[in-house]
Amino acid sequence: MEARIQLQSDWYTALRENEGEVWVSCKIPGKPTVYGSLKCQGVNHDGIPEVTASEEFEVLEVLKKSIHISCPSGRTSSKFIVPYTSFPRIHDKSITCLDISCGGGLGVSTSTDGSMKIWNCKNGERRRDLAGHVYDVNCCRFFPSGMVVLSGGMDAQVKVWSCEDGTCPVTFKGHKAGILDTAIVDRGRNVVSCSRDGTARLWDCGKSACLAVVADCGAPVNGCSVGVADNSMNLGAPRKAQVRERTPVFEFPGSDALNCCAFLSSLYIVAGAQDGSIYQLDVRSLGTPVQVFHKSGAPVHSIQPIREGFIASQGDGSTFIVQQDLDHTIELSGPDADPVYKAAVWEKSVFTCCRDGLVRKYQLPNL
């Protein structure tokens, strides 16, 4: 576990007040947690506060929407970014999943109120309700076209929706329990779904049919991701053996249940676990992870590639970005201990959904 700086969730507003003060801490593995504070000494004409830190910390940079802090004793630093805007009225209850269209204009999200909605990414204005699942909708994502949505629900159904008129032309039935995740193959002729019934299935959208049960694990399959294999990988003879025979190409045992996974490239995979561990794996050699990240013991709910790294959200309200060429972590502030269930990336914007019912939109600096 590496050292991690934590900052009071409402630091942005507190440090805009003269002599406003917030707490900051740094958890260092094997050592006592370092506690300190940041204090506003005034605000300049551009609206940027002059911030000083207690002796355990250093303020490296303050901008309009971010603050960069270091803890010398922990040999770590983090840049905290506040939302550019928030959308509070898309759903009435906790938001469990979201995705952004390829053009960045539309968002789709699901909620514990049983709804799935399409909305405008600029102002959060609701455009359309996608109604048809029975019980809660667990996951949603756009097809590459940006005009079609794929969803999976507690009703064990996978559905394909038109964003233009809200109709559902395709429903896949075959799973015996709720759908937990989906993935889209290439442009969307085929899709993959995984379920609490312990299986992952490959579907043909044109034929509305299940092509194969590609995995039967005997326990809930929490996440799935689709990537393109590198030529240097030995996947066996070029035939349909892996799909027809359900032969695993590789396996990796995590320290706890793995909740989510994503391809960073054709060779590297990242996976997040229930105990907070994040594994970066090389598919050519899975005996030992390339790297293990452990920011906290909170469950990792989502993980997505972003440039030369990944963005992860956790059950303690944290969302952070790790980049190979950065010597610091980027932390997305806002939630106060409410789980962040999903983060979606579009260009330099990040959208998150949280148990507090808010969709938050962040504008990232040049990474």
TrEMBL record:
Write the record's keywords in alphabetical order, separated by commas: Proteasome, Repeat, WD repeat
Record's SUPFAM superfamilies? Answer: WD40 repeat-like
Classification via InterPro entries: WD40/YVTN_repeat-like_dom_sf, WD40_repeat_dom_sf, WD40_rpt, WD_repeat_multifunction
Q: Where are the WD repeats?
A: 88-129, 130-171, 172-204
Q: Which PROSITE patterns match?
A: WD_REPEATS_2, WD_REPEATS_REGION
**The UniProt record lists the keyword Repeat:** yes
Keyword hit for Repeat: yes
The superkingdom of the source organism is Eukaryota
State any GO CC term: proteasome complex
Give one Pfam family, short name only.
Answer: WD40
Q: Which family does it belong to?
A: Belongs to the WD repeat PAAF1/RPN14 family.
**What is this protein's name?**
Proteasomal ATPase-associated factor 1
Q: Which organism is it from?
A: Albula goreensis
